Amino acid sequence: MTERAIRVLVCKAGLDGHDRGAKVVAQALRDAGMEVIYTGLRQTPAQIVKAALEEDVDAVGLSLHSGAHMTLFPEVLAALRGAGLDHVLLTGGGIIPDKDKTALAQQGVGELFGPGTPTTKLVEYIQQEVARRRASGPTPDGVGANEQPK
Amino acid sequence: MTAADEISRGDRRALARGLTVIENSGDGAAELLDALCSKTGAAHRTGITGPPGAGKSTLVAGLTREFRAAGQTVGIVAVDPTSPFTGGALLGDRHRMSDEARDEGVFIRSLASRGASGGLARAAPDALDLLDAAGFDRLIVETVGVGQTEMEVAGTADTVVVVLSPESGDAVQAMKAGLLEIADILCVNKSDREGAESLVAALESMLHHRAPSAAKDDWSPKVVSTNALENAVALQKAIASHETWLGQDDHLAARRTKGTKARLTSLVGAFALERLLDRAGDLFDREAAEVIAGRCSVRHAATRALTDLLGEKQR
Asked: Does the structure show a pLDDT above 60 at A94?
């Protein structure tokens, strides 16, 4: 069997209506051979997690330009864990200050990318991070497979 | 508890993982489907097909709303195309079903076509079986945007809906072989747009002039029109009347037998090809050289190669 395709959910949360970046990212991931589920605007954390579960994705890419990143990333992460989706990588991008990136990383959010990042960089990051997570689990009950990246 | 037990008890996570396993023909895919096969068959399966941009996803959302209002749970399989160049896919059907997607009575799974050419993903019929075993009352499968030759949905759904819009082309496009012949229901969507009424009239006249079927109690396809952004009531009613017809005599059994035979044919074909190609070695290089050198035709070379692969004696 060939390596199965990486599945990524690309979404926008809250009232933020700027989806150009999310669309560019979705296309870049598609062109890198991934299967990208694009949910569009104004998703709630509960919706995002329901989609991640049903679509059995490896990663969730959340795009935020509203300034609500310190609320929404932790909410989505907690909801993913609450649904037993510990192995799913939560990454994303937007206008996010470095100190906030560090704080979110400590909670278990993956790398966050700012404007001007070459799309090849996030493609590589998702490929490597998903490969690492697939190699380390999930365990049969799906819990505990996802330690924080060192 | 096995994965099959979890799925049949309605565990969504187990269902999602099971879908991944069968989509990748992973370890245990055949066993999982086998373990659940006695639990499938209860849910009615609607297939939604038609050209790109006709409004299939929006119509699926509208239809789902009607089913939910009637208290039924809905499982949806939505297929979008895989790029033949990169293997990647952008699966955007869920995007059109945002309100329905948040409803706990609805489960949506997007599948990439992964090289299948019939308008569905190879795993789509199996995915429907899994959703069926998980206990959803209604199943909907949405094909990729199709042209004139992608008919696989006909062997997969109990009721086939072909969606057209006034922009999909005039009645001559619809007269070409294929799509119309598999339709139980023709749905002209975007009914508020110019040309919708005349398309409905043209389709009705076309159906009217079709050669009458040999069987007297055969279903005669219906034409309905919808504006899916508002509602899909007309379509839901047409599906309900087709369902009533399916319930009479052995119509449903006959249709499912036919569909199962089509699935068998296609799977045996795929498996046979895999096995034969496994043992091809450099056979195709050798045969191609013969053709290029002008010593035989491609057709002759292909026949000889197949005889060789099957281990039959050369005549």
From this structure: yes
Tell me which residue in B19, B24, B110 faces A37 most closely, judged by beta carbons: B110
Residues of A with CB under 8 A from a CB of B: 1, 4-5, 26-27, 29-40, 42-44, 46-47, 50-51, 53-56, 83-84, 142
- Determine, for residues B16 and A54 on separate chains, whether the beta-carbon distance falls below 8 Å: yes
Average pLDDT for A40-54: 91
B20 neighbourhood in chain A, CB within 8 Å = 4, 56
How many whole angstroms separate alpha carbon A13 and alpha carbon B260?
42
Instruction: Find the DSSP H helices in chain B.
Output: 3-8, 12-23, 29-36, 56-69, 98-101, 124-133, 171-175, 179-182, 196-208, 233-247, 251-278, 283-292, 298-309
Q: Decide if pLDDT at A141 tops 50.
A: no
Query: What is the spatial distance between Cα B7 and Cα B22, in angstroms, rounded to a whole number?
Result: 13
* Nearest-Cα residue of chain A relative to residue B20: A56
**Integer-rounded Cα radius of gyration of chain B:** 22
What is the side-by-side strand order in the sheet with B106-112?
A: B106-112, B74-80, B138-142, B44-49, B159-164, B185-188, B222-225
Q: Global pTM? A: 0.89
Please say whether the beta carbons of B23 and B111 come within 8 A: yes
∠B161-B166-B169 over CA atoms, to 5°? 90
Which of B1, B82, B94 to substitute to test the interface with A, most A CBs within 10 Å?
A: B94
The whole-number pLDDT of residue A144 equals 39
Question: For A46-75, what is the mean pLDDT?
Answer: 92
